[in-house]
Amino acid sequence: MARYKKRADGRYYTSIASGEFDDDGKEFRIPVYGHTVTEFEANKDAVRAQVLSGGYANDKNTTFSEYKWQWYDTYIKGTELSHARKKAYENTLNNHTGVLDGISIGSIRKMQVQNGYNKLNGHPDLQHEYKITVNQIFRAAIDDRLIVKNPADNLSVTKVKRKKKRALTKIEREAIKRADLDLKERCFIGVLQYAGLRREEILALTRSDVDLENDTIHVSNVVEFIGEKPNFRDYAKTPQGERTIDILAPLKPILTEYMQQLNGLIVFPNNQGTLMSKTQYRRFFEKIKLKINTAAGGKHHYDKVVKGKHTRYVLAYDIDMCKGLSAHVFRHEYATILYYSGVDLLEAIRLFGHSDSKTLTDVYAELRKEESKSKDKLNEYLTKNYG
Fold it and tell me: Which among 28, 37, 53, 327 counts the fewest CB atoms within 10 Å?
């Protein structure tokens, strides 16, 4: 029996010499896993047989370009991934992997993969997409016995200071109360603030999703934009997002009033009673933000832009009291409400939507840190003045 280690996830692990060597003469080793000793031994024997038969030699004939599109057609194109995710993969494959395209997949070295990453310096989002895409491709190539080691493992990545996400400010909370919002706008903001829905979730709400008798909102669909056009997408295929949320007390009166006068199926439709397009949503939210900013003491004007025979007026803020206000800010506000209401993290993750569990975990950790700082300051003050 081969020696093995038991990993933290419970699986048994070892590695087997492949007979393939890198440019420095170091032999590649093939990882072997198993959930039980029996499974582990069977997998180990299968890998060893592959090595002896030459089945684990690096492929020198298939180019990266050939394989990446085979991978895309198999693992991305024909799946239930959103249109936006598929387009992100396509963009990476079409525009950012050219440095690898003409090389046989078995000849690619880590330095070449790193070079592709470095070419995207200054564009952290593109670097992130590149890294996850090539990693997935090389892992599939290992499974297909085309290579024995992933050359995208442990790339030297650029550390990016992400913009800190925020909840509503005190000024914004007060301004929302005073803002000259109509019933639809106020209800829309209320659902964002007190139910924490994502943009694509709130736009997909239908009359049957709102249960005023039981005080719940059922999130079962999302709107997926293909260009400008909105389309329903069933959340049942992604159960981490489908959930039922309680209608909180501050939301109940305004939501009840709004639902009583609502005509049609869509809860927040465009003027024609159908799903908002991407531009219609942007203008709708921009109008809401403008009213909140005005109530907060902000000022704005419109710049006249003439292009050929066309004239348009572009909103510009002279004093922006609500800089960065978006649906994400309201969602962060909901997370803050959950924390200070004493909702435990697991239940909060369910209400927030499981796919954002890391986001919510980070929010809870940050709020705990702030509370700890406040406690330290209070103790310091008490010791100094009352000790």
Answer: 53
